Amino acid sequence: MSPLRFCCLLLFIGVAATRFDLTNSARILGFFPSPSKSHLIIHAAIADALAEAGHNVTVYGASKNVIPKAKYKYIELEPKTNESFVAGMAMGSSPSYKQFGKIVEMIATASNDSLTHPRVQRLLREHGPGDFDLVIVGYFMNDATFALAAHFQCPLIVSYMKQPIMALNSLIGNPTEIAYTPTVLGKQRQPMNFVSRVKNFISVGMELLMAELGIHFQTKIYDYNFPSDRYPPLDEVRKNVSLIFTNHHFSQGPIRPNVPNLIEIGGIQIKEKPDPLPTDIAKVLDESKEGVIYFSLGSNIKGSHLNEEKIKIMFNVISKLPYKVLWKWSPTELPGESKNIIFRDWLPQDDILAHPNIKLFITHGGMGSVVESQYHGVPMVGIPLFGDQPSNMVNVERSGYGLAVDYLTLTEESLNNAIQDVLNNPKYKEAVQTFSRLYRDRPMTPRETVVYWVDYVLRHKGAKHMQSPAVHMNRWQLLSLDVIGFLLAIVLTISVVIVKVCKLICCRGRKNKLPKVEKAKQN
Known about the structure:
Layout: H1 3-23, E1 27-32, H2 37-52, E2 56-61, E3 73-76, H3 83-91, H4 100-115, H5 118-126, E4 134-138, H6 147-152, E5 156-160, H7 166-172, H8 194-225, H9 234-237, E6 241-246, E7 262-264, H10 279-287, E8 292-296, H11 308-319, E9 324-328, E10 341-344, H12 349-353, E11 358-363, H13 367-376, E12 380-382, H14 389-399, E13 402-404, H15 412-424, H16 426-440, H17 446-459, H18 475-478, H19 481-522
Parallel strand pairs: 1-2, 1-4, 2-3, 4-5, 5-6, 6-7, 8-9, 8-11, 9-10, 11-12, 12-13
Helix pairs in contact: 2-17, 4-8, 11-15, 13-16
């Protein structure tokens, strides 16, 4: 073959390969309106995996991009966070269940703000049906944002940060097994005894009430922004969910049945190969052979949200430890100075926990943090503040991966005792490292799982064949109350007929006997 022909052949192969990639590259819109950075980390990891796989991904997020080097296109929506709400939850001004109304109202406001944002409105004006092949929505009871899939008339995938809540299960008809599956916010653990099942039953009722309240607000937002003369009702749009990605894995528990289109991708935010650490942090970790403690209360909590007395307690205990401590804390709110503490406004948590010299993780107990600690086999001491954090730490404690201390009753003694116990008793490290091996044992990595199932939905035009019939049934039908009522009506009707027939036979029998009695008397 001549050099010219050889070059032409290579060019043809290159063009063909490029066309093949373009043909198989879907246009995907990621819409992640939650202002919580910890939520965005999960959703953005899904978008990143798809972009790496060759898809054309555009992401709208409510905070700064958490993966700056990602291949997706990122458009930031300025969040409007409710600082007083976060502070109230953190300070423990009232129990979480009393905050339900505020939580739902805050979510509704965030949903409306995201949909009416000028950049989103521009997207809706300039693009229509056919411009996107798939929409992925980061879920936080923000059902009104499903309107984007209705606008572009394409399949919808939902991403959630942990095991599914009841509001999420209803989208795909995932069964609610109250008798043996604890709710997300409850502190029950399998197997449940009678008392636990009673508590779980009450928790389910509260969660259902919250879900119904949320749908009420979300429907109002949807109807106002997406009029019925151009868009289907929200109830129909909610039935358009092709898949739910949940940042959970069955090995974490609880064990429960799932429908085919609930896909577990627990640990999606964890890098398969950690990124290089910042030079100064790497130096501290590499040189501290005795071990380093990592301390973070998550991405939402600031020093101003916490009680000054509690901050002082934490500082006094940690400053006396004979270990270097990496403490994520705002430099403008430092609780004090200590030679063993290194404060940073931001720290690459996943990469730090992956370092072999990390000895302990002091955490708020958010699910993302717990999962990363479990994955890397690092024992924990938890100071849960609100939301699902207390129940997460109950599971950590019961599984033997660490200990929890109550924030409201926190003392130097209780915190120090917990830290010393987890540091010095090898059972915690052994338990969490055993679980780490279990958690990692899967046929596909979370990123591979995401890519496969997204491609599956795209290939099969929404994969409607995976959808449970329960999606199209109401609660009366799901509980078979209509069938039970019908059968009871039949039984009642038959019973009434039998009783009447018996009475009629008895009456006729009496009438037939009366004349014989009279004749006998006459004789």
